[in-house]
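#data-curation
PF: Archiving a pair of folding outputs for the training set. Convention for this channel: one message per protein, sequence first, structure tokens after, nothing in between. First:
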Amino acid sequence: MLQNQNNFDYIDHYKKDAEKFDYFEERFGATKDDERRLREYISTLVPKTTISIVDIGCGSGWVAENFCPKGIKVFSTDLSVKNVKNSLKKTNSKNHFGIVMDSFNPAIKQNKIEIIISSEVIEHVVKPDLFINSLYKLLKVNGKLIISTPYKEILKHVLCIHCNNITPIHAHLHSFDENDFLEYNKNLHNSEMKYFIFGNKVLIFLRTYSILKYFPFSIWKFIDKFFNILINKPAHFIIVYKRN
């Protein structure tokens, strides 16, 4: 979710984005398996005692689909009414709730939330530090903010045929490594930070998912870690801020 800069209306942009592109369309092949492993990794970081989760930028609605059947309440949030409605439709559960909101001005009380998941959103944000601060304030003591984003992504741009300005592909505005989030952590009160780097690009490029998809997450994680030791080319990055 982009913040206003140079008269850019980020709310209008992402409402139109949701109308134009289907975030709920089925994925295939290496992309599908890569997303699956990312989601499995995030899921292992959510405590089994969790009662409720706020999903920031609900996208394909995978958080609700994964956690609602476990009896966990999930609040799917997004700037787009369409994405929230589609998420609720995809996971029709008494544990699933939808909120249309802007994460820079969240319609949620501060100091109340147990777990916040923001998967593949922060790279689209103009002001990542303000985004993190806004969400961190919602956490109660021992609450966790779980963020995923590409790791050291090489950003690519095109010249927009409509406005004649340089435009980032996939609207990815930032590339991150651990130092960026350690710096953001300095502005958070009573925060404890951990991070996880994974998803070997060589394994993805070689389409080894055709074999590895049959392995449970624990074995896949070991193989992925081994390949990142041999060839240090990780694709994914998860950061966890815990409020103490």
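PF: Second:
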Amino acid sequence: MEVVYSSNLRNCREVGLSLEAAGIPYRLIDVPGGHAVVVDKGHVSRALAEIEALAAEDRSRPGAAGDSARPVTKGHDPYHSETSGWTGLIGYGAVLGLITLLHYQNAFSSDWFQAGKMQAGLVRQGEFWRTVTALCLHGDLVHLAGNLVFGGLVGFFAGQALGSGLAWMSIVVA
């Protein structure tokens, strides 16, 4: 969990040394707009107490002012995504539903299966786009429903863990 944020790297290093002296393991990371000191969840309360003691000591020194390291009161884990996963799930359902609808409507007077199905020989000849378009084609509505349920579950939880964009890009690439 992120326990300190500062735009000044020196301040974060000072906090890190204080935590190290107290026997609290920490990591120093770069975050947008500055730097942060990160500790494991089990050490957050001890780390915040140590940081507050360091801040009180700094305040008691004459002439101590400037950009000091700001403790994070809530505790933020910069490695944990704040997304719910719903954005990617809705997008996934919309894309599969739209392509299925277009296929059954014979949109653009095109044979959607012939144009997009996976054919290894054609992919080897340079039609790499078939590796993605084939993911959107379904033989019938049962096949579509199965992919929506299973793919939706995997994508939803991956979206919560990684963020929707990274999760769905990883699924497509995989």
